[in-house]
Amino acid sequence: MRVRKGRIVLFSLLVIAILATVAATSLDVARGITLGLDLQGGFEVLYQAKPLEKGQQINEQVLSDASRAVSERIDVLGVTEPQITVEEPDRIRVQLAGVDDPDRAREVLGTPAVLTFRAPDGEEVLMRGTDLSPGGARQDYDENGRPVVSVRFKDANKFADLTREYLNQPVPIYLDDNELSAPVIRNIISDGRAQISGNFTAEEAQELAELLNAGALPVELSEIQSFAVDSSLGAVSLQQSLVAGLYGIAIIFIFMIGYYRLPGLVAVITLITYGYLVLLTFNLLNVTLTLPGIAAFILGVGMAVDANIIMYERIKDEMRLGKSVTSANKSGSRRSFLTIFDANVTTILAAAVLFYFGTAGVRGFAVALIVGIVVSFLTAVALSRLLMNLLVRSGLFRKPGWYAVKEDEIGEL
Amino acid sequence: MRSVNFKFDFVGKRKLFFILSASILLLGIASLLIQGLNLGVDFVSGSRVDVSIGQEFDLEEGRAILEKLGYENPSIRKAGNENELLVFRTDENLEVEKVNEIRDQFREKFGEQVAVNEQTVDPIVGRELAKNAMISVLIASVGIILYVTIRFEYRFAMTAVLALFHDALFVIGIFSIFQWEVDLVFVAAVLTIVGYSVNDTIVVFDRIRENIEIEQPKRWEDLKEAVNRSLQQTLVRSINTGLTVIFAAAALFAFGGESIRYFSLALLLGLFAGIYSSVFVASQVWITWKWKSMEREKLKAKAVTE
């Protein structure tokens, strides 16, 4: 077979392109990944929603309103990108990454949301959120088409008294200690219905309505689990895991090249691509990287190495049977494909089940695992085959020694 | 050919492997029944406070601080790569103020670099998670059995799942024997092991199936020879793959820091178990089972011809 320089050039270009992309963008990609609390420090708390009054149902709507109220509170803290998840049937998980002051966070989050209608002085509490009918606030438009919030009270008479007393005066509405709105009472309202007007946009009015509903809910949030990591500790964890990862990967690289020679080099390139693509996917899917996520990542490295090893061992087997490098490569990669496929499908199956049935922690792990397997399958099978084909067909590497096969191992055909 | 030069009668020694596996598993089960697992705060109520001192320190000084704060005979230990961590476990759910108190006292004694990692858990949540993980593994096993039955045969499927439980139980048993602390991250490690175990077993089975399809063994010697050869052929791959993953896990264990120490330890044990079980347990159970059913079929065939 003659030497085809084109293939080697193509191979080199491909490798250079991959390495250049990785080198140029991997730092940005890595920075864009959301780190879990265990890796960057922060505060996580799991609340259980309990009814304040007997007979109060805790349903999906109630929980979503309550989480809305919680999110409003977090805004007070100035935390960026808090994660608030409703976990059926009655829990709300709040994750505040990178919070330096978990105590304050806890304090602000821990007290139940109190919605109050106050006297004009802003001190005396006239009515509470619990006086609103459940779900009694909604976004509406007034006769001039301006967005307003209409509210309905449980006890129409009580509200009528209030409007009589404070006619033509403002009655500010507070959520905890923040004034939301200070509507002025214009007439006595006897049917328990009112409109809160202000210079709202439709969205703001909608938001206020949701807040009112949230505040109106007699939900008590009790802390059932908490987790706080000082940010310096989280940073240490992350740094240690990264250093450990680098050592581990370096050993794998040395081992692969040392044992498999040319194919080992291909494996190293596919592994670099694997690592890069997984990080990129984490970034794009907004996967939060936690310690278990790192575990899944490592398992993915294992799978990717495994797929490469299965293929190379098969190719070596074929060469030992006396086949030429080209045909050994061809039949070896073909025969190893189904094996790799079956092995990956079973693991994905397991990961998918974990995702479907798992709770928060297990789910993150499952997502990371699925991403890892899919990416490792693509890189270790598709990319590895492509690169191997280019190398083999270039005709430059015809000696079995390049593939770590000794001449005396080769049987007669 | 090297693969021919290297011969090891795996099948012939299978009883030995069964005894070895069974005794380790029984030991683990016995330990689980007698002393159970050393459950972290994820599963039993209470708080755990990790105080990072930042330097080597005297444990007694830490004890003195905690005792001064009113914790009688506190359960504390040293941890971390440089023994720079003090881990304090208590049965009571510590309030924020109390944790702050601890931090402040330690800062006073050891300096401002002292940082605290605090965890308080309602055990119900952790137990739920572990229960869900267990249910998930069971359902996943059913899925794996179905898939492998369709692609291979049910004997392969059942033994692959058997190996999966072998590996998980092995790690859980060892953790019980040595009373290493079990937390939520440990659950993730066991799940990782389950994933790896199946993957590894399938690769070995795939080769057995291929060789058996080519040779159609009828006698015990032929079947044994086919399985032995399959194992020899895949052994280099099993070892190499195992090694590479073990490199990664070992690096995590050595350099990964305190919070994932037991996690990487569990991974390491699980990887060993995974490699061991696919070669020495799953394949051996399979061949025993396969041969039994082959004999039964022969008897049937004989009965029909007579």
Automatic annotation (TrEMBL), chain A:
Positions of the Protein translocase subunit SecDF P1 domain: 65-121
Keywords: Cell membrane, Membrane, Protein transport, Translocation, Transmembrane, Transmembrane helix, Transport
Ranges where the SecDF P1 head subdomain domain occurs: 124-219
Family matches, as Gene3D superfamilies: 3.30.1360.200, 3.30.70.3400, Multidrug efflux transporter AcrB transmembrane domain
Subcellular localization: Cell membrane
SUPFAM superfamilies reported for this sequence: Multidrug efflux transporter AcrB transmembrane domain
Membrane spanning stretches: 242-260, 265-285, 291-315, 336-358, 364-388
Membrane topology: Multi-pass membrane protein
HAMAP family membership: SecD_B
Protein name per Swiss-Prot or TrEMBL: Protein translocase subunit SecD
Gene of this entry: secD
